[in-house]
Amino acid sequence: MKSISGTNLEQAKSHNRRVVIEAIRTRGPLSRAALVRLTALSTQTISNIVEELVASELLKAEALQKIARGQPITPYSINPNGAYSIGLELERDRAIGVLTDLSGKVRARVEKTANRPAPAEALPLLASIADELYQGFRFDRTRLLGVGIAMPGRYATEGVTSLSPVTLPGWQDFPVARELAGLVGVPVLVENDATAAAIGERLHGVARALSSFVYLFLGGGIGAGMFLDGHVYRGSRHNAGEIGHVIVVPGGLPCSCGKRGCLDRYVSLGSLYEHLRVKDPGEYSPDTLEAMLDANSEAIDAWAAAAAEPLRQMIDFLELSFDPQTIVLGGSMPPSLLQRLAQHVEPLYKPVNPGIERSLPRIIIGATGRDTALLGAAALPIFSETNPQFDVLQKPVGR
Ligand SMILES: [Zn+2]
């Protein structure tokens, strides 16, 4: 297994360098003096770090800025071409990959059809997508930080993943990260879709610079990605945030988990398809599905109205449990549908401390859209390499 050690990107790993990168990433271009003020690092340390990061092309100097008094200053910004990352997502009927630069901008995209692939077919497919992304957008391979992959489903022990057996066969306890890393030759990070989406919004989206928020992932099922006090929160067995199986209607509709009345049964895309009597949503492309949704406006409004109360209860529960700065609504659900749910869910329950001043709305719609898990996957290696709280991420295999 090759890692990027030995390249100049290695420099980005020290804590202080991460602090500098994070400050510039969240606030935009900053001068050395501004960095000294914001980071509490010494003038000499900042000077050395900036010089090294510019030399390794992770930062670049912007044009000189004149100020009222004294010498003109040089602001430094993130150099988008300083590093790259690949994000992968596997669905029942397709595998998708994106190449993003250090600023999170998508530079290339590859999509291939699949048919409920087991690991033996899926891994070469995912590796070939990674290779095409690399071939199609030639860049210095030593600048590829790694591959992130977002997967639905629960985690078993030791970081291996298990997808819901309902969606894909043969993935139970399959060590995705290790096997894929062997094929692509760079570190591979795996997260569930909700946590990946939360990291994506933290790095490039609406949650930039937030220290505590909950990402509510609405898709085929429902999950929560939690970023609390500056850390990704995963739980003791990597299964925190499985809120789709919180009972919201006691004695309600039966759920695949064996209980009745779970949130998944009322708010997920699966529950909507059931409401619309769509038997196999896997047969339709996302665009066809969205057109169907547009054509069934009344039925969807009825579903959204019924989904609103369970969702409102869950938002209340998340606010009371975690005291987040905001709750980000997102997921693989079409954005038009998310908007409709967000409208129906208002008014939210009255906060317990209504007097407390808020700087953000209680609910914000995510910025990364329906590709949120995929873009979040691409954010994983960047987050892992440049966030000051790097120890919170599971160590990639091979490090
Ligand atoms: Zn359930």
Architecture overview:
The protein is α/β, with parallel strands linked by helices and 399 residues long. It has three domains: 8-78, Arc Repressor Mutant, subunit A (Orthogonal Bundle), CATH 1.10.10.10; 84-197 and 374-392, 2-Layer Sandwich (Nucleotidyltransferase, domain 5), CATH 3.30.420; 209-366, Nucleotidyltransferase, domain 5 (2-Layer Sandwich), CATH 3.30.420.40. It is 37% helix and 18% strand. The chain is built from twelve helices and 14 strands. It has helices spanning 15-27, 32-39, 43-55, 119-136, 176-184, 193-204, 264-267, 269-275, 286-295, 297-322, 335-345, 372-386; strands at residues 59-61, 76-78, 84-90, 94-101, 106-113, 144-151, 154-155, 161-162, 188-192, 213-218, 222-228, 231-233, 326-330, 363-365. Strands 5-4-3-6-9 form a five-stranded mixed sheet, with helices on both faces. A hairpin with a 3-residue loop joins strand 3 and strand 4 (94-101). Helix 2 packs across helix 3. It is globular and about 70 Å long. The termini are close together. The structure holds zinc ion (ZN). Residues 245, 255, 257, 259, 262, 264 line the site of zinc ion.
